[in-house]
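Feature request, filed as a ticket because there's no other form

It would be nice if the structure record came with a short human-readable summary line next to the tokens. Right now we just get the raw output. Example of a typical job, pasted below so the devs can see what we mean:
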Amino acid sequence: MKINYISVVVFNQKINSLSRWVGKFTQVLKLMTKQYILKIVELAKVQITCHDQALAAYEHSRLIKTYAKTSAITKLKSHEKDDNLISVSQTFNPLFVVQTMPKELAFYAGWRWFELCQLAGISKILVIECRDVSSIDVAKNAWQYLFSDHVFDMTQADSLMQMVKLFKVIPKEYLQVLLASDYSHSALKSVENMTGVSRQTIRSQLESLPKFEETKTSILDMLLSDGS
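Raw output as currently delivered:
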């Protein structure tokens, strides 16, 4: 059986290329392991607050309406099996934090299920801690989280309006990265580019809906009051 020399050379080149790729990928994983740490924290033993640079995104998240009924979510706290459901769901969506002081953490992403864990009285949560806060743009990460978490779950009745308002509050330099070619200086045009809905339809929804209530009530407060 004859072996084609050229084929052997090409094969070796592909193996070498794959080896280099695996090597680079391994280096990236090692870098991520050094920069981030995944761990379980007991809420009773640590104070967790919103990072100052993530506060604008966090506050805006309180204004976004979703399909989830607050009354239904509140009832979850009365059933042990549902507490487990919340806890498991939180492990799929860990809280991103940085350590600010001993036994003090500040979150900048992943807060949705964290708040539900607090409501349900769950004692332990999963967090991803960034060891070097200077290596990340906290505000950018917060806005990216908010965008990715809510862009597909806004209520249909006023989703266009909520998207316009969201695009208006996200800083321009971050919005350009998030929307890429769909970005426009006009929030209405950006929504049009992203959804395919005409600006006339978007304007009609903006004009037909009542003014979006900008309450400062936290999600936790809304859940508690709704369930009372």
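Something like this underneath would help us a lot:
The first strand starts at residue 36 and ends at 42.
Confidence is low (pLDDT under 50) at residues 212-228.
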